[in-house]
Amino acid sequence: MATVEFKGKSFDVDEDGFITDYNQWNEEWVEYVKEQEGIDEMTDEHKLVIKVLQEYYEKNGIAPMVRVLSKLTKFKLKHIYELFPSGPGKGACKMAGLPKPTGCV
Amino acid sequence: MSEPASKIESQKEIKQIKDMGLDQGVARLTPEKIEKVVNEVLENETGARLKAYVESCVHCGLCSDACHYYVSRKDPIFSPAAKVKQTLWEILEKKGKVSPEFIRRAAEVAYTECNLCRRCAMYCPFGIDVAYMMLTMRRICHKLGVTPQYIQDTAHSHSATMNQMWVKEDEWVDTLFWQEEEAQEEIPGLRIPVEKEGADIMYSVIGPEPKFRAQLIYQAAVILNAAGADWTMPATPGWDNSDMAMYTGDNEMMARLKKEHFETATRLKVKRIVMGECGHAFRSVYDMGNRALGWKMPPVPVVHALEYYYELFRAGRIKVAKKFEKPVTLHDPCNVIRGRGLHEMTRYVVNKTCENFIEMTPNREHNYCCCAGGGVINCGPPFRDKRVVSNSVKADQISATTKKGVEVVIAPCHNCHGGLEDIIHHFGLGVELKFLGDIIYEVMEKPE
Question: In 3-state terms, what secondary structure has residue B331?
Answer without folding.
Answer: coil
